[in-house]
Amino acid sequence: MRNVYRVAAIAVAVASVSGCTVEQMAKDPNLIGRLQLISAGHTGCMPKDHQISLLQADLTGGSLWKATCKGRTYMCSGAGVVGGPGGYSCAPEVE
User: Fold this and answer.
1) What's the sign of the alpha-carbon dihedral 56, 2, 20, 73?
2) Residue 90 to residue 75: CA distance in whole angstroms
3) Which of 9, 41, 70, 76 could form a cystine bridge with 82, CB 3.0-4.6 A?
4) Do the Cβ atoms of 66 and 36 come closer than 8 Å?
5) pLDDT confidence of 14, banded at 50, 70, 90?
6) The dihedral sign for the CA sequence 22, 26, 30, 33
């Protein structure tokens, strides 16, 4: 899990330096695959069953995304320090 966080944090940092937008990052299959994997542990769906919508990512390692699977949408977030331990959570989206 720690390596997944590092990869996501590095992707955010590189994207920020290179001028990539959240929309461009949302098309990165490696990042989407990692978010699908993280979400799976919180939603009970298999990673491949998730549709990911990346909403926000920043240089501090924070991220916000929606994971949709089997007709249910979950709001997910990640927080931490780049290179350090991070935490993730997902909860059913409030309508």
Assistant:
1) negative
2) 5
3) 9
4) no
5) very low
6) positive
Helices 29-43 + 2-18 axis angle, to 10? 140
CA–CA dist 47, 36 (Å, integer): 5
With a CB cutoff of 8 Å and minimum separation 6, the contacts of 33 are 47
Give the span between the Cα atoms of 4 and 51, in whole angstroms.
18
Q: Which tokens go with 70?
A: 């089997």
Long-range contact pairs involving 62-65 (C-beta distance under 8 Å, separation at least 24): 63/8, 63/12, 63/35, 65/35, 65/39
User: pTM of the full predicted structure?
Assistant: 0.69
Gyration radius from the chain CA atoms: 12
> In angstroms, rounded to a whole number, what is the distance separating the alpha carbons of residues 75 and 73?
7
Q: What is the mean pLDDT of residues 32-59?
A: 90
Strand, coil or helix: what is 45?
A: coil
